[in-house]
Amino acid sequence: MSDHEIDPTSPRMAPKQEVTKIAGRELKPSTLMMGHGYDPVLSEGSLKPPIFLTSTFAFPSAADGKRHFEGITGKRPGGADGLVYSRFNAPNQEILEDRLAIWDGAEDALSFSSGMTAICVLLLTYAERGDVIVHSGPLYAATEGFVAKWMSRWGVSYVDFPAGATREEIDAVLATARAKADEQGGKVAMVYLESPGNPTNALVDVEAVRGAVDDAGLECPVAIDNTFLGPLWQRPLDQGADIVCYSLTKYVGGHSDLVAGSIAGAKKWMDPVRMLRNTMGGICDPNTAWMLLRSLETVELRMSRAGENAAKVCEFLARHPKVEGLGYLGMIKDARQQDIYDRHCKGAGSTFSLLLKGGEAECFRFLDSLNIAKLAVSLGGTETLASHPASMTHLSVPDERKTALGIGDNLIRISIGIEDPDDLIADFEQALEAV
User: Fold this and answer.
1) Residue 232 contacts by C-beta under 8 Å, 6 or more apart in sequence?
2) DSSP state, residue 255
3) How far apart are CA 78 and CA 154, in angstroms?
4) Cβ atoms 352, 329 nearer than 8 A
5) CB atoms within 10 A of CB 188
6) Dihedral, 349, 220, 191, 336 alpha carbons, nearest 10
7) Using CB atoms within 10 A of its CB, is residue 24 exposed (0-12), middle (13-18) or buried (19+)?
8) SS3 call for 281
């Protein structure tokens, strides 16, 4: 970086010293969500953080302004003091990022205006012309489309592998990717995973990917979209991932009333992404950050209830004669997938795929007959949602790829909410009668 290039990485206002242990006991994330990263003294004693609706921050003096810019330009060691401009960071976002990092055991976290903003800025940070991205499949359709249709415009190619790939298959894919990168004059820029995959719930062996990347001598980060199980039911950084990505719109936000995203990991991986976010924008706005702070206080309660509901609903659905199968992590039939689940997951989640006997017509009759469950995309909200991926979220995916990934016309994706489980079962039962 040149002396004239401004790099406003992470200017922070220092709150009081955090209490994260009591008598040697590490406080749990659910406890820390009530106050971590926020000092009421800095905000007139307000118990909860105010919403800081400001675009810029005032310096106490001209000398302080000079010192700040000396820090962010590297002319003075030690970095910046305080805040300068809300495209870079602001109090609500700082507190949110501190609390998000806790859930995944990460050193640092960054918030974004949407999950796709987080993913796109991440990929743009680490990939350049000639590079190859290795990714698992299936991915969220917008993610897969960005890699295949947009990154390719800038000379970045990809190689993919199925979510359930063995270590040997992963080794082979990495070798293919490296040869392709060498031919193009680039490098393997990133291994990007989504586990469970959307919408099939197929799991990726993160530990096997980590081992394969290390044994291949690759220095690229391993990133993973943890939206389906995070932050409660899976901590991929513990299995060797470097970066964890979220659509905070889903379980973390949890009320279907906001759109946001985040990534978390070691500071060495976060700082380059922060630099590009500072240039492009795309940070989460203060009102949304404030709403997410509210939501993080109840995320454990909401996800626990939704998970319990899903187990009861799936127990009913598994016995129904019109149901061909379930893509539910609490009822895995494949031994290898069960092994990954046992090593990686703390719970089965509340989003699953329902396979009906029939095809699109049967699925549409089922969806149109629901009363409690809402016919809508997205997941992780307080309400139960159902959708038809083949004709909705994954419509843009080529038919042959949908077939390869197991996204058929008889697949319905369901996200269970926190309603009464018996009421949900009654709703699904009457909807199945219409099939």
Assistant:
1) 103, 251, 299, 300, 303, 304, 346, 347
2) S
3) 36
4) yes
5) 22
6) -70
7) exposed
8) coil
Cα separation of 113 and 96, whole Å? 13
The tokens 């719109």 sit on which residue?
249
Q: How far apart are CA 182 and CA 388, in angstroms?
A: 40
Q: Between β-strands 157-162 and 132-137, what pairing exists: parallel, antiparallel or unpaired?
A: parallel
Q: Could you count the other beta carbons within 10 Å of the beta carbon of residue 394?
A: 23
DSSP 312: H
Q: Name the residue among 240, 242, 245 with its Cα closest to residue 263.
A: 245
Which residues make beta-bridge pairs with 326? 354
C-alpha 48/C-alpha 207 separation (Å) is 39
Read off φ and ψ for residue 83, nearest 5 degrees.
-120, 155
The string of pLDDT tens digits covering residues 87-112 is: 999 999 999 999 999 999 999 999 99
Q: Is the pTM of this model over 0.85?
A: yes
What length is written for the chain? 435
Spell out, as residue ranges, where the chain has pLDDT lower than 50.
1-8
Dihedral sign (CA 210, 214, 216, 218): positive
Distance between CA atoms of residues 434 and 419, nearest Å: 22
Name the strand (E) or helix (H) holding 193: strand 188-194
Yes or no: say if 267 and 107 are a contact pair by the CB < 8 Å rule: yes
**Block residue for tokens 């039939």:** 333
User: Which tokens belong to 381?
Assistant: 């909200």
